[in-house]
Fold each of these.
Amino acid sequence: MSILRLAAWVAWKDLRLELRTRQNFLTTLLFAFIIIVVFNFAFDPGSRAARESAPAILWVAFLFAGILSLANAFAMEREEGCMLGLLLAPVPRGVIFLGKFLANLAFQTAVETLILPIFVVFFNVRFAGGFLPFLLVVLLVNVGFVAVGTLFSAMTMGLRLREVLLPILLFPVIVPVVIAGVKATALLFQAPAAPGWIHWVKLLAGFDLIFVVVCYAVFRFVVEEAA
Amino acid sequence: MTTDTQHADTWAASPAGGRAGFTALAALTAAALVGALYMVFLYAPREREMGEVQRIFYFHVASAWLAMVAFAVVFAGSILYLWRGRLRHDRWAAAAAEIGVLFTTIVLVTGPLWARPVWNTWWTWDPRLTSSLVLWLMYLVYLVLRGSLPESPRMRQFSAVYAVVAFADIPIVFFSIRWWRSMHPVVVSSQGMNLEPEMVHTLVAACVAFTLLFALLFRLRLGVERARLEAQRLRRILLERE
């Protein structure tokens, strides 16, 4: 079987688990929703400040919710020695990384898909630059964020300070992704959409390429000692 | 990884590179630092517009240079550790990271001290300032990660992995932050500093002195690690005898 097929099996295992319990999904969704509601109180509704901060609020909600679910991505493997079972599977370690990465990516995208309509209604934004470019930006941010997040999630799963360490490790590294996501979104929300967003898409693509490869390559060092 | 303890023992027991060599390095560093101080305060001319405060520049730039060197050493040590699994390389990375954080802190403190009278503001989200800040955060986190795990191959592998990821991130951080700012009107452009030859000499001297200082601190820090491992080994032997 090809690497991708094997990875898809690992991903499917996680997704099926999530589909059956829905525990992680619902809490993450609720968390993202609450962030958006709380941020509404920080601004005068309908004011210029609220409109201008909309892209930043959207990404804070997406990424904070994402961190929350990433922290659980490997934690559940700790129970009943699941991680050991997973590592015993006769596949390269990179496949496990790809599988986890794909599952987290699907999860993150699903949460965002449900949160986005609520955000659009609350903040009254228009996709002046077209919806497809916006979709592209979201997907590219997700790939980079989830790739690094999956690696660090595997790293912190057994640690006492897991909940604090994961965001501390992750946020400085994904600074470029945050900047690019917020900036590109802001450019696409502007009334006459600014064409500069394409630069940020290129930057995101570069980040994604580098970090999917780097995380895939170093993943084995992270799980070797963890089981 | 089973031989990790043996690595630790052989590394700790290997000669620390000679007492005489160390004394020579320390003396050379001291002389270079005094020389650099002389050049910064007496040799380099007074800047016409900024005045005396401009002299911070020499140490500021030298510290930034040193931080770059340190982070390159962290990366090299981490890659070597992942590849070969030798304890020594992990300690290179740890020692260099501490020195790198120290000197990035100096950069971030001397920058605002200079900026207050010259730019009339302590802090501005100028690309270089922001990049230094993010860099400082990443390596601070590296040290936090090391500190949050007990001494083990796992701790060394995790920190090496983080160092590799952080290093791969540096160019992207620089680019993204530069673009992030350039989309805005730049309120304060970077200083169009035309350097006098004496100023260039002073800057070079400061950089050389700081590089020596790095070598000295690096050796001292590794010496501490050696002593710590040797103490651990002796304690183990004593416990076995009982």
Amino acid sequence: MNRIRVFWDSSVGKKAVMAVTGFIMVAYLITHVLANLLVFQGPVRINAYSAFLHGTGGALWAARLVLFVSLVFHVTAAIQLTLRQRAARPIGYEGGRTPQVSTLASRTIRWGGALILVFLVYHILHFTLGTVHPDFIEGDPYHNVTAGFRNPLVVAFYLVALAAVGLHLYHGVWSGGRSLGVSPPSPHPMRRRLALVLAVAIWLGFTVIPIAVYAGAIK
Amino acid sequence: MNLTLHIWRQSSASEKGRMVRYEARDISPDMSFLEMLDVLNERLIEQGESPIAFDHDCREGICGSCSLMINGAAHGPNRGTATCQLHMRSFRDGDVIHVEPWRSRAFPVVKDLVVDRRALDRIIAAGGYISAPTGCAPDGNAILIPKHAVNTAMDAAQCIGCGACVAACPNGSASLFTAAKITHLGLLPQGQPERYRRASRMVRQMDEEGFGGCTLYGECQEACPKEISIDTITRMNRDFLRGLSTAGRGAVAESD
Amino acid sequence: MELKSRIPPGPIEKKWDRHRFEMKLVNPANKRRHTVIVVGSGLAGASAAATLSELGYQVKGFCFQDSPRRAHSIAAQGGINAAKNYRNDGDSIYRLFYDTVKGGDFRAREANVYRLAQISVAIIDQCVAQGVPFAREYGGLLANRSFGGAQVSRTFYARGQTGQQLLLGAYQALEKEVARGGVIMYPRTEMLDLVVVDGRARGIVVRDMVTGKIESHAGDAIVLGTGGYGNAFYLSTNAKGSNATAIWRAHKRGAAFANPCYTQIHPTCIPVSGDYQSKLTLMSESLRNDGRVWVPKRKGESRPPGAIPENERDYYLERRYPSFGNLAPRDIASRAAKAVCDEGRGVGPGGLGVYLDFADAIKRAGAQAIRERYGNLFEMYQRITDEDPYQVPMRIYPAVHYTMGGLWVDYNLMSTIPGLHVIGEANFSDHGANRLGASALMQGLADGYFIVPSTLADYLASARLEKMDPSHAEFRLVEDEVQARTRRLLAIKGRRTVDSFHRELGKLLWDKCGMARNASGLAEALRRIPDLRDEFWHNVNVPGSDTELNQALEKAGRVADFLELGELMCRDALHREESCGAHFREEHQTEDGEAQRDDEHFAYVAAWEYGGPDQPPRLHQEPLQFEHVHFAQRSYK
Ligand SMILES: Cc1cc2nc3c(=O)[nH]c(=O)nc-3n(C[C@H](O)[C@H](O)[C@H](O)COP(=O)(O)OP(=O)(O)OC[C@H]3O[C@@H](n4cnc5c(N)ncnc54)[C@H](O)[C@@H]3O)c2cc1C
Ligand code: HEM
Ligand code: HEM
Ligand code: SF4
Ligand code: F3S
Ligand code: FES
């Protein structure tokens, strides 16, 4: 019988898809956070970088396509798995089920993910299309960012979304390796140094920007 | 000591169930949890009420019959302990204890605290074995197995099939149970020929039974009376995925 | 009734091979047409069902647990014997045979025991092939330990969970056959009676424990692997559900019951802690390899064990049995413990306990080595007693553990009812009056994997069996009897719970028919049991109905049978005017308190034929010849 079917129909297969797509998005986030940090070096560099990206034309669209497809698969699998998991326990525990070891990150993976999705839509309208931006200047991300984060509500929303991203990664980067069956056995399977470092780095890298702008450290 | 119990009562699969409150008087801390229920049942019978049905047999933590959700924890508060090995000294006088059956779509309630776990047998039947019909075996020492390999296999082989992993998993996933068997047999030389086919069939059966997928919450490992590690789940995923790749030598095609 | 043991002629080493050649075979095409009913999914039942299905028979399997994997065999800890002589320490098939006959105190059939020893070798190979993770040496070879009463290392083990791993091997083979369609498994289904049609066992009547429905299953042969009846004593190391119902109802349908009084008392169990006690927990005998057994020399010693100096301790096993010491066979170790406790030197609450001390072993080998060997047992002990055996010595006391008695079977493992085969602990087995450690797993698997599959073929090929289905009048009849019995139990609505009767019976049997027995005690038990049985049938309170999962009803049926079997046990113990193996009659002991056999009058198997309700049973004797192992007073001094 058809291997692809078996793969996609199985819970393990879907998880593998989530892991791979997840890691693709993680890779993007790493480059993205580094790029964004250029704002601290003033308008020239970051705008140049943006210009360079937009200059590449085809490559940019290719990357966008990969990211978009990843997101679609990631989210589709996430929703399907979530539905299965809901269906697997139609009747819950009256006395409640007391979590023993599961991390906050794992328990918020779904809502966090949903929040990230909402954030993404807003974020693209905000900084890429500028639709929801008070004073958007095509090709001047420095201005867009500094102007964009004047509004406390926007900043607040970003901070929440970024927290979700951080948590999502703290679980995802760790579990992804296990979903793909590549993590080595460990005497303490719940430990996750790499995921911790990565999640904190990415979260911090992003978070300092809106704060810095709002605090006026970046003009 | 005296305790207040809230216990799930359900006269049959078709009836609706509810939590019922009971007072357990002068319980000895040396009693096991099940002996406490025995005492309660004796009193219920003497009062002409119907005793509480619960699964149990060996009462030594090895048969996997006992299966109680105690205060939201599968097999109760203690690590690496099956319900039958839980003693009342783990509770304090005046405690309020909630007792419920395992909850999973694949484990329909039969009565009170008794559930139907045949889904786990079907997962084993799907491939949780080594095909070695009686009579065909070579000498036991013809196959050399490194000590550490046997020890790791044994760690997983200890699974008692109680289903606590399912009960504790927020997803109602049977991954730990399935992975434990895949790991036990997959680590041994005798288990190699059927390794990928086994993983492929068992995982698919697990899904078919309506268990959830694994999000790596890790609750199962904590609830497991044999403390089986979620490393086994990593292994299950690897073997399943390899089974689909060419490395698996067409495990899927073969198995259908 | 006559007892035809069907022991094949010829030299003992050749008997089994020759017999296998002479037995008839069922032609492959016909196997499919034969339905075999296997009751029990323990080591014996599961291995038989799987193997019969592999051979091509249609198998129906039954067990009362919710899964065949939960059979009581799962609890076996210590290990399984096999005459592999991997250790090159002088073991051999003949030595295993010799040790078993001698250990059984000359009350087993030589031919059967020899066959058991021969097959033991193949069992290990079979289990390894199935993926049973037996302990290994660093070189990758199988490890061995020496086990209760044996001076060679012939015991194979998987940590302290040998039974579990062996059973899972058999269970997985069984599920493999279930998936293939060769076996239909009926869990949560209890056999309540046997159906005999013109002298042959043709079916069983069962109760679906979930719906309460009484149903019949017909077959060409029946195999009972339903385990032992140690739970007649209420407190035993057996699983709570272990029961005698299947074999007892078969007995009432005409199967002879052999040596019911041979019950093994295991020396190393955790002592009783209170009257709520529901079962006793075994601490594997393997602990005696490193633990030293002792009690204080002084009566009523009040100091904690640590505070008692070496010279005030009595290592009584090492003292009385210098050559075997702490490894003295079970019956001897148990009686010795009882003796010191009767002297008032017992330790722990109620003075019913002796110390099993690992201090020296830990000094010698180090705590780590000990943890590797017994880690899970130590944990189990600490969980139950809240004491740490690495720090303070364990407290142990003997408990009912195994029943050597059971349904009488011939060399083909067939009972006195043609077509009814009995395997594992349920038959009267190859252990004589006392079973050596790690030999029950061996016997269960020998019966199930290797013996019954071939002997059953001989029966099916020889017997002319017409088609049979549950519509036959005889099935209706038996169903009605079963139904009536259940209804009656529910109708009594008396004032006492089933457990209260079971506890009372158990205490009575333990006191009068336990580690030591005497004529007056047994006579008293024989007076009191019928009264207790009578009260049971008038005053038991079984709640609920027969159309639901009703655990009280299940218990009631089992206890009703124990109340009849218990009487037979005492009757058998009373009639056997000797001490042999586990059966110790105080009237028959040497001046230094050792068991005294009477080979002249009692070298036979006592097979009891059911005499009818409240009628005395009829005794039949199968004389035992010993051509290879010559009568000798067992001495482990
Ligand atoms: C704690 C403990 C430790 C032991 N350790 C060892 C050891 O180390 N080495 C060793 O050799 N032996 C050991 N033994 C003995 C050994 O485990 C048993 O003798 C052996 O497992 C019996 O296996 P069996 O297949 O005959 O019966 P069991 O394993 O008892 O199986 C009985 C089966 O019959 C079914 N059944 C019973 N009645 C009915 C009924 N009425 N209707 C339907 N089904 C029924 C049950 O469901 C079960 O499946 C130990 C025993 C105990 C109690
Ligand atoms: C946009 C909406 C998103 C949703 C709804 C979402 C949802 C989820 C869910 C539900 C899981 C757990 C799957 C499971 O184990 O059941 C998950 C895992 C994961 N997510 Fe997301 N996520 C989203 C975005 C992202 C993004 C942007 C990234 C990367 C930056 C990401 C990376 C990961 C990773 C690596 C995993 C681990 C996969 C695994 O455990 O195998 N996710 N996501
Ligand atoms: C403070 C945090 C962030 C800042 C300041 C920021 C900034 C920007 C800017 C300026 C752009 C437009 C780039 C350009 O058009 O040249 C952009 C695009 C984008 N950002 Fe962010 N971003 C942040 C966080 C995130 C996060 C957390 C995610 C994902 C979860 C994300 C995903 C994207 C995506 C997908 C695009 C579209 C890229 C494209 O144009 O193809 N960003 N971001
Ligand atoms: S893995 Fe652990 S919890 Fe799950 S069934 Fe096996 S023993 Fe029970
Ligand atoms: S708790 Fe559930 S999600 Fe996976 S790790 Fe255990 S099965
Ligand atoms: S009763 Fe057997 S494991 Fe608890």
Amino acid sequence: MLTKDLVIIGGGSAGLAAAIGAYDNGVRDILVIEKGPFLGGILNQCIHNGFGLTEFKEELTGPEFASRFIKQAEERGIECLLNSVVTNVTCDKVVTFVNKGGTTKIKAKAIVMAAGCYERSPGAISLPGDRPSGVINAGQAQLYLNEHGLMCGKRVFILGSGDIGLIMARRLTLEGAKVLGVAELCAWSNGLNRNMVQCLDDYNIPLYLSHTVTNVIGKSRLEKIVISKVDENNVPIEGTEKEFEVDTLILSVGLIPNNILMVKAGAEIARNNGCLVNDKLETSIPGIYSCGNVLHVHDLVDNVVEEAREAGKNAAKYILGNNEINLSSINTKAGEGIGYVVPARIVIGDDEKDATLKFRVRKPSKDVYILFEQNGKVLKKMFKPAIIPSEMEITKLSKELLVKGDELVIRMVKKEAK
Amino acid sequence: MEERDLICIVCPRGCHLHVDKDLNVTGNFCPRGAVYGKQEVTNPTRVVTSTVRIEGANLAMCPVKTKDPIPKGKIFEVMSSINSVKIVAPVHIGDVIIKDVAGTGVDVVSTRDMEKI
Ligand SMILES: Cc1cc2nc3c(=O)[nH]c(=O)nc-3n(C[C@H](O)[C@H](O)[C@H](O)COP(=O)(O)OP(=O)(O)OC[C@H]3O[C@@H](n4cnc5c(N)ncnc54)[C@H](O)[C@@H]3O)c2cc1C
Ligand code: SF4
């Protein structure tokens, strides 16, 4: 069987940054396996700007950002295999992939999982009504338009106010389509503020908050949709229906880590479908790391590459035998008001001074404290004048503060009025 | 000038800005927000990103952007100019695709390396 020190699954921004991180920490025998015909992943179809402000201190488009990482990988001579799909990963780190040359198995010393995410389907959200053509996922519509020059329709409605939906509202408007509105189930928008302004307000596209699609009508092609207001339990309110004659309904209703390979490998899986990792981004299978959108969905690629380089660095330590073994770890827990926390575990007693914690709140809140507590004792307290679910929070916690055994709870509390 | 409340769009932080009658900006976390706030009430501009048809590459479309922000009111004129050109591979990041688009003084440039196949 072929062997490699490090195999990286996925050649998107996470996979490339992980390869670079591992290389820069001493590993040379690296293979990146990418199923598509290009490196760079999803960024290639994200032709809008807004990437790279943290990483490169300038505003780049998706393809420009991707090309910088492709160049960095090329400069290091990192081997990348295109048009090759990984079909299996085992807990003893045998990776199987398929391409024109057939099926190949590689035994790796370490693996970085960086396979990105996929879009939630109409079925997954129990979209009611017919299934004519013209109901399409936002990322799919973006790919058709931006890489192949194919418009999905002329009169469009968008369900879901995530960033991809907002970006597509503007993009389709610029290409001559009429976007009649965006409906969002939550009482707040799930996109970044800047996208609300630049993509909807600039083009007078209405946003219907606390609304959802309650009927989809059309025989072969979509003819119309009905939206309704929802109550606080997300149940449609009768008598609030509005009809829109559209030929296209775009769904931007969430992304899910594309983590099936790790599920099959028997790794411990978190509620979001990503792997449970420790603060070294190592999964429950020693020597297999996870980063980028396959771990948890990121809104900013700058955060993806930072996380991925860290995963690559830690994989390098593992390969070169520099990591401490048999250390204990504590669990983290998303408490009151917090949606999720990555990592799920923090290793105690290693040579890292800080643990990086990433989390999202459940709903937009003002004047709150974020508390980091172990056994009721506050280890860290952050004041936030405003905090929203669509922006991931990242903070460092000194590991010296942590004691063995007890769970670390992160929770949000309202600042008390004086 | 009228007072206005804006959301800064220069970076993803999205600060809530207040611009008063004398163009003083508050609420910005960093200096770029003050520049944006003033600009947005006097002469709002945007970077336009789109695609142009390309021949001889392995994809039908090449992504492009205006090298600098252009006046907001010119967006659709810039778009129709972008949609009227066709290019031939190879192109590289930064190559000028349209000079001085729609009389804005700004060039449209390629944002992806696309080799000839
Ligand atoms: C549509 C969209 C719009 C976005 N807009 C912005 C934005 O405006 N600003 C911003 O900063 N960020 C944005 N993001 C976020 C950012 O682009 C992503 O977070 C980041 O690029 C994800 O990188 P990744 O490497 O984790 O995933 P991806 O880029 O998806 O890469 C995963 C790669 O793995 C490959 N792969 C998957 N399965 C296999 C397999 N079995 N075998 C081999 N290869 C496999 C895929 O082909 C893909 O190339 C957006 C994300 C999406 C989805
Ligand atoms: S003021 Fe500065 S930090 Fe705030 S959104 Fe604008 S650019 Fe970003």
Amino acid sequence: MSGNEAENLLRRLAPQVLGALVRRYGHFDMAEDAVQEAMLAAATQWPAEGIPDNPRAWLTTVASRRLTDLLRTEQARQRREETAARQILPAEWLAPAADAPIRRADDTLILLFMCCHSALSPASQIALTLRAVGGLSTAEIARAFLVPGATMTRRITRAKQAIKDSGLPFAMPTGSERAQHLAAVLHVLYLIFTEGYAATSGTGLVRADLSAEAIRLTRLVHRQLPQDGEVTGLLSLMLLNEARRPARARPDGDLIPMAEQDRSRWDTDQIAEGVALITGALSRGSPGPYQLQAAIAAVHDEAATAEATDWQQIVALYELLLQLSDNPVVALNRAVAVAMVRGPRAGLDLLAPMQADQRITGSHRFHAVRAHLLEMAGDRAAARTAYLDAAGLTASLPHQRYLHAQVTRLGGDA
Amino acid sequence: MGASRKETPVKYMILIYASQQDYDSLSGRPGPQQPAWSSADFAAMGTFMESFNKELAESGELVDTKGLTAPVHARRIRLGGGVPVVTDGPYPESEEVLASYWIVECDSFDRATQIAARLADTPGPEHVRARAAVDVRPIAESRHELEL
């Protein structure tokens, strides 16, 4: 078998093995290290010696042994330093279980909930999710986020310590807590996807591995919760965006705006799957923000040409989205859609009051959109200034190059 | 007492003990205090345990037998300032703690002792056999029996 097959199998098994270990022995932090070491052992042994008959059992055994070793070392150290690891039991452990039947939930989902715990910063949630559930090594995650390995190691170590300190039990949260946790998980998956889709820094426009990983993890959640509209919406949204990836950049890495993309290069399988998912979800009633964003992406993806885009429908969807949350990025996108329906001045009118909103004026997107609408309205000088403003606000080289190209195209003095 | 009276079977618990260091050497890791078990020793013990348990099951005397995972995985809960406090890994490396138990149901303490004696003779490295101890204790089936 190829090393690649072994790697895919390993990554799929990683959260299952970690879940089994934490469920049986506790110690999320050390169990996670133990699973990483077991995966490393497998990655070197399996391609050479063949996959064992029961790879999951193999990994669980090796990881359990490693966990025992890690615990011994830790406990010996604590005894030397007379710092017994004592932990006060959470109060709810002492009360009889009030909630009805304890259903054996999927371990992967519980792990995701742990990794996206509110005690962690978003950066830590992302890193820990990729490692504990995604099965990526610390070095791989560090590369994907363009930070030194040591930085990522510290980030993950701190994240695990925070989970340990929080005393979070290995169990599926219930009721409203569960909904909150799920929302946090979806947000983290969304961040991983967007990080891969439009890298915030560095030279590569798309770090495809992160996008693919986000889609894989979202599929995992979707398999567990197929009836959840927002999970379905997020998966659909990712697929519909990912479908355009082959057409998003020129071979030299420069960005191509959607209106100029070669639509024959869009991935029709991904579009078909994304459209089917969102259509099914929308038919089940009151859509949340991911479903609405997916619906908007579907309208774009289904238009044979840029001119054929149903902007009326997109405006309507953005208005629904704005009712759900006061998000300046959504307001910005609505302004674009309105400009496409009623002309650039109508779009600029919507942008005017946003000039005071610092949440958006610090983003290159705001100035790029303004530049684009100004140009459509025939005000080339103002458009040029706005493009320059935008270029000064993005750390992404492809974005900078695109925006500077617009400045050059509009000419005039530097 | 009539000779025909059938003895009521009684349950006994047979217990064996091991320290974390014993678990380590059993798993093949040499330690400062004792060498690791050889493959031959390990295999001989496995064969012995298998046939021992099989015989007990066939005679109908075996109620249950289980081994416990390494002592490092233990948690101890005690009251600290009135609230339960958990300590992970409460045993020193050399402390012998319960490692396996058998519950047997048989006619007499003597028969249970006979069974336990076979366990005391489990094959293994000489330094382990020299220290090995097996305890047998009658199980109290009711509170009444505890008050005897």
